[in-house]
């Protein structure tokens, strides 16, 4: 029986069902309280534009609610774990399970399986609903909860790297081969030393030669300090039109696949992507944090309830869980700043606390 993770189907269903019910009850209570407080704080700004009323308040709730659910689902799993295991310990159910020959890992196995299911649901929920709600809410907040204007398609102050050279376009219009540039500056460098600057009022893409034509261009020679007219200049043969038309990427408003494609386009354009890559990997490690919560909260399951240490063990379990969230946010912030590699920033806290929780469980109960 020690080699079986689920030696009793009836017991596994009982523990798993109790854990799921308590986790979702905690989630509902958290969401109701937090959504009410958030709406109270934002209602004045939502109702400020002329014509906004109750419908806009409910629209805000519909967009904000998925964000709150996604953010606090791991917290609810942690609290659900503590409530479930503390109650079973207090009622001597854990003692009965251990007396029947179940190990600590076998007692936790139904919770881990249920948490894995929650992580899968959380990932799907984030990909399908949260990203769209986030993008819509940020667009609405950008106009102070007023009518959202139709996108003009004009992008300003766009930078692109061409090998060792840098190109800045004051304005970009159109898409594909019809992309047009205005107020262009091309900084030609050799071994990171600026040699000359080419300026042109307009530029267009030539698909036949896959290069850009800078019209009525002027060239400033840095070494001589002179300016001269050079007419039409053909340059930037390694720069595609879509590298200029890339807008600012909202990582929270994109699903995993579109964000991965946007990162690839930005990388080809020579733009920094470390912050976006950290968020990309966190789209997987974030939902999987639900899998850690039964392990970190398991310290409240064991030990004799009559010893008087049950409350202390529950506090320790809660402390471990909240410490993980602090470490996860800190690591993600370091990844956004470029201090940590993106993969490490997203996965290091998860792996660290997985080993920590397993070590505590083995040392104390196995």
Q: What does this protein structure show overall?
A:
- The chain has 8 helices and 6 strands, in the order ααααββββββαααα.
- The chain is an alpha+beta fold.
- It has 2 domains: 9-147 and 274-365, no CATH class; 164-237, Roll (SH3 type barrels).
- A 6-stranded antiparallel sheet has the order 1-2-3-4-5-6, with no helix packed on it.
- Helix 1 packs antiparallel against helix 2 (54-90), helix 1 packs parallel to helix 4 (104-142) and helix 4 (104-142) packs antiparallel against helix 6 (274-296).
- The longest helix has 39 residues, at 9-47.
- The protein is elongated.
- The chain crosses the membrane at residues 12-37, 107-125, 310-327, 339-362.
What is the structure about, briefly put?
With 366 residues, the protein is an alpha+beta fold. The protein has eight helices and six strands, in the order ααααββββββαααα.
The helix content, as a percent range, equals 55-70%
Distance between the termini: 15 Å
Number of domains: 2
The description of the largest β-sheet is: 6 strands, antiparallel
Outline, from the CA principal axes? elongated
**Radius of gyration, CA atoms, in whole angstroms:** 28 Å
Largest sheet strand order: 1-2-3-4-5-6
What class, by secondary structure content?
Answer: alpha+beta
Number of strands: 6
Mean pLDDT: 87
**Strand portion:** 15-25%
Pfam families: LptF_LptG (PF03739)
Membrane topology: Multi-pass membrane protein
Protein name: Lipopolysaccharide export system permease protein
InterPro entries: LptG (IPR030923), LptG/LptF_permease (IPR005495)
